[in-house]
Structures are given as structure tokens and as C-alpha cells.
């Protein structure tokens, strides 16, 4: 059975824009966040192709909320095609120029190659590749995009987070940071630690995750999923606008993995399902579902030792939530991000580093920054106006993507090398972890 229906917006249509958006099988809420704000280059007329089910309903409900919010409502009009052959139907219809993919990561890269070969641009949420054997398919997809002069863009939203922007700028200011240390396996020069939680409460109720989220063959392990952001931030910080030669300049040395165990009660609480689905039964033990969402990886980028831990707990303690630590060690200072704060800890002359920091802040394009002395170092105080939040990053990402779509030749050449390096680290890290006894 095929369901085809149109949903008409509640407000007068916007002026016709150049590009129309096609959302395909939206399995993750990031697909909707692209539409949280109206963008001048996007038409109000959009299209959704997906199997009929909970994922589709959740996506449409999110966009409806954007359209009906009291403040600054959007005005999207969606034509929805819900059928088992939704993907083939989309390729046949080609109703728009831009395809958005988010969720159900298994097979995503093959779909991207097919869509690119059909001449459509793609904004795809991470991850594109979750298994080592699929890495060559990334190159095939990029080649298809080049042949059709279309853009494939990875949704690296953390590049728009102010703490990440400031850390990158400080690491690349020799007066503040000095030179990047090489580090070692025992004391890496770069360390990142990311902690997420499976169960999150929204308005007092659990935010449901689809059951397939807990199938690592569909979602990927922690490193190949959220770890893509961490690897991207490292190369974006250490190699700004400079291509990376993989594997000559990237060596993955060690990988580890361990599970977060969900009892049947935990699984029901986070998914609403009373039993583990058959497709995860091979990871069910006497104490519950062993969900391999935790990874550690040690690698080098041009000789700089990098270590990162990606962890998922079931539920945060009261008053706590997702967290991320990021540390870069230079000859003059250490630049850290902790608890959404940017810290600089001098390695030697504190007064000299303080003066260099003041000059850096005075020349910064980010207005309102100030410097506070704290113990053995400094805190860069960030005004609230610059802390725009995770969801607002998607609007900035979409604007950057649309600029590239309008001028495909403007996409920097180093971006393709970053994709190859990033997915090489994540997939090889998981491959090494799976060899551990």
C-alpha cells in the first residue's frame, strides 16, 4: 500500500526560492532541525519520501511545531510520499535539488552515491560510513558527486560551537600556544572525552529512541557515530585548510570497546518496546542487551598523538547531562574546553601568556570576549549572545551548505581529504577494538 498526501502550511507561502528540499527516510531528529529556521535560498515547498511508520510521524510532528510556534514560525509545505518503494520513487520523481539524509546509517553511503549520480546535492548527517569494508564506497560517492558537479556535505555542526571556534583559534596562535607537542601513547598531545546518555527526559517524559538505534549494524558504535565529530574537530583544529594524506599522515594505533548494558526495563523505558527485537538478540546476555556504544581510540595525525574516549551511559545523575572535554598541549600553554568553558593553562611565563591572550581577544572577530585569571591559568569569558546552542548550529550549517550548492567550485579541496581521514580513523579504530579479547 502506498500513502501519498500533501500537508499544507498554515500561513501564507513565502516567495519562491531557488532550491527545493527532499527529506529521505528521516530516522533522526537532525533531519527536522535543518528546517527549524526559514532560509532565503530554500522554497517553502518541500518533499518527504519514507516508509510509513513512527520515524516519519515524528519528523512531520517536529516540522509542524516549527510552523505553529508563536514566535517566528516557519511556513513549510510538505508533500509526503509514504510507501515501501519510497527511495526508488524519489529517484524517479526528483522533485527537488537537495536531499537531506539523517538516521539509519547502514547503507547510507550507497544511497548517497546513487543520489549524487542522479544529479542531486546531499546534506547528510553523520555518520556516512560505519564499517571498515565500506570505506572504499566513500570514494565512489565522492567521485559520483564530482562527475555530476554536486555537493556532498557532512553535518559537522560542532564547527559552529563557539568554544570549538575559540579553541581552534588559540591553538593556532603561536604567541599563546607555541608549537603543537607530539606527545606519546602515555601522554597524548590531544585528548578528547565525550559522554552522552541514552535516556533523556523532555518535559518530564522520556525522549523515545527508535529500537533500531540499539543495533550497532544500523547505528554504528560510539566512535563511528558521535566520534565523527571529535575526529573532525581534531583535524579541523590541527590542519586548518590543509589537506590530509591518508593513510600516510594518519596511523590508527589502538582501539577498544565496551558495552553499556540495558535491562529489558531500561529498553522499554527508552524505546517504549517491551522486548528486545530479534535483530539485536545476538548481543543479549543474561543481564540484558550489551550495546557496544563505548569506544577508545589512539592514533597519530602527522606524528601528533591523539586519544579520544566516546562513552554512552544509560541515564545521567540528577543535575548532570552530556559533557565533552577537549585538551590540546602546546610548548607555551595548554588549551582546554571543559564544561563549555575555554581555559588556557600556561606552561611557563604566565604573565607573557596573559598578555598574548589579551592581544588575541582584542583582535578576535567574536565580540564581547573577556579574560579572567583563574589559579594557574586563564578563562576566556564568553558572552551569552555567542552561546547559540546545538539546534541553532544547524541553521549556520545549512547556510554554509547552500553557499557551496550555489557555487560548487567554492567547496574547499581539503574538505574531501578530511572526509577520508575522518572515516578512516573511526572505522579502523572500531576494527582494532573488535579484535580485542
Features:
single chain, 437 residues, alpha/beta, Rossmann fold, Dihydrodipicolinate Reductase, domain 2, ten-stranded mixed sheet, seven-stranded mixed sheet, 13 helices, globular
What would your notes on this structure say?
Helix 4 runs parallel beside helix 5 (about 135-150). The protein is about 30% helix and about 30% strand. By secondary structure, it is of the alpha/beta class. Strands 8, 11, 12, 13, 14, 15, 16, 17, 18 and 19 form a 10-stranded mixed β-sheet that branches. It has a 7-stranded mixed β-sheet with strand order 1-4-3-2-5-6-7, with helices on both faces. It has 2 domains: about 5-155, NAD(P)-binding Rossmann-like Domain (Rossmann fold, 3-Layer(aba) Sandwich), CATH 3.40.50; about 160-400 and about 415-435, Dihydrodipicolinate Reductase, domain 2. It has helices at about 30-35, 55-70, 85-95, 110-115, 135-150, 160-170, 175, 215-220, 225-240, 265-270, 350-365, 390-405, 415-435; strands at about 5, 20-25, 40-50, 75-80, 100, 120-125, 150-155, 190-200, 200, 205, 250-260, 285, 290-300, 305-315, 325-330, 335-340, 340-345, 370-375, 375-380. Mean pLDDT is about 95; it is low at about 5-15. The radius of gyration is 22 Å and the shape is globular.
Amino acid at each position: 500500500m502506498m500513502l501519498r498526501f500533501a500537508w499544507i502550511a498554515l500561513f501564507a507561502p513565502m516567495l519562491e526560492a531557488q532550491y527545493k528540499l527532499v527529506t529521505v527516510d528521516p530516522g533522526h531528529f537532525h533531519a527536522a532541525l535543518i528546517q527549524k529556521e526559514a532560509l532565503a535560498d530554500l522554497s517553502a515547498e518541500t518533499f518527504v519520501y519514507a516508509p510509513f511508520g513512527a520515524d516519519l510521524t515524528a519528523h512531520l510532528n517536529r516540522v509542524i511545531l516549527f510552523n505553529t510556534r508563536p514566535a517566528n514560525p516557519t511556513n513549510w509545505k510538505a508533500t509526503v510520499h509514504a510507501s515501501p518503494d519510497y527511495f526508488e520513487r524519489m529517484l524517479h520523481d526528483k522533485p527537488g535539488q537537495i536531499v537531506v539524509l539523517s538516521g539509519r546509517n547502514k547503507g547510507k553511503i550507497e544511497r548517497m552515491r546513487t543520489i549524487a549520480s542522479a544529479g542531486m546535492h546531499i546534506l547528510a548527517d553523520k555518520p556516512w560510513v560505519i564499517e571498515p569494508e565500506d570505506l572504499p564506497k566513500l570514494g565512489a560517492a565522492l567521485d559520483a558527486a564530482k562527475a555530476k558537479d554536486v555537493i556532498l556535505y557532512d553535518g559537522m555542526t560542532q564547527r559552529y560551537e563557539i568554544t570549538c571556534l575559540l579553541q581552534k583559534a588559540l591553538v593556532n596562535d603561536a604567541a599563546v600556544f607555541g608549537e603543537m607537542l607530539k606527545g606519546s601513547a602515555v601522554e597524548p598531545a590531544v585528548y578528547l572525552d565525550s559522554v552522552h546518555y541514552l535516556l533523556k527526559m523532555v518535559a518530564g517524559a522520556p525522549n523515545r529512541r527508535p529500537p533500531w538505534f540499539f543495533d550497532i549494524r544500523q547505528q554504528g558504535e560510539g566512535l563511528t557515530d558521535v566520534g565523527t565529530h571529535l575526529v573532525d574537530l581534531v583535524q579541523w583544529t590541527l590542519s586548518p585548510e590543509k589537506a590530509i594524506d591518508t593513510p600516510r599522515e594518519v596511523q590508527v594505533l589502538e582501539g577498544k570497546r565496551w558495552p553499556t548494558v540495558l535491562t529489558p526495563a531500561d529498553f522499554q523505558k527508552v524505546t517504549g518496546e517491551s522486548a528486545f527485537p530479534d535483530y539485536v538478540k545476538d548481543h543479549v546476555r543474561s543481564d540484558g542487551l550489551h550495546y557496544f556504544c563505548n569506544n577508545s581510540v589512539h592514533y597519530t595525525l602527522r606524528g601528533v598523538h591523539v586519544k579520544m574516549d566516546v562513552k554512552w551511559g544509560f541515564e545521567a545523575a540528577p543535575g548532570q547531562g552530556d559533557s565533552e572535554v577537549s585538551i590540546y598541549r602546546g610548548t607555551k600553554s595548554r588549551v582546554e574546553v571543559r564544561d563549555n568553558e575555554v581555559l588556557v593553562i600556561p606552561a611557563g611565563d604566565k604573565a607573557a601568556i596573559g598578555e598574548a591572550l589579551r592581544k588575541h581577544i582584542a583582535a578576535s572577530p567574536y565580540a564581547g570576549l573577556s579574560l579572567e585569571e583563574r589559579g594557574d591559568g586563564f578563562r576566556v569569558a564568553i558572552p551569552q549572545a555567542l552561546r547559540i546552542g546545538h539546534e541553532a548550529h544547524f541553521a549556520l550549517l545549512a547556510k554554509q551548505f547552500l553557499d557551496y550548492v550555489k557555487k560548487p567550485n567554492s567547496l574547499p579541496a581539503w574538505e574531501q581529504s578530511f572526509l577520508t581521514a575522518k572515516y578512516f580513523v573511526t572505522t579502523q579504530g572500531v576494527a582494532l577494538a573488535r579484535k580485542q579479547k
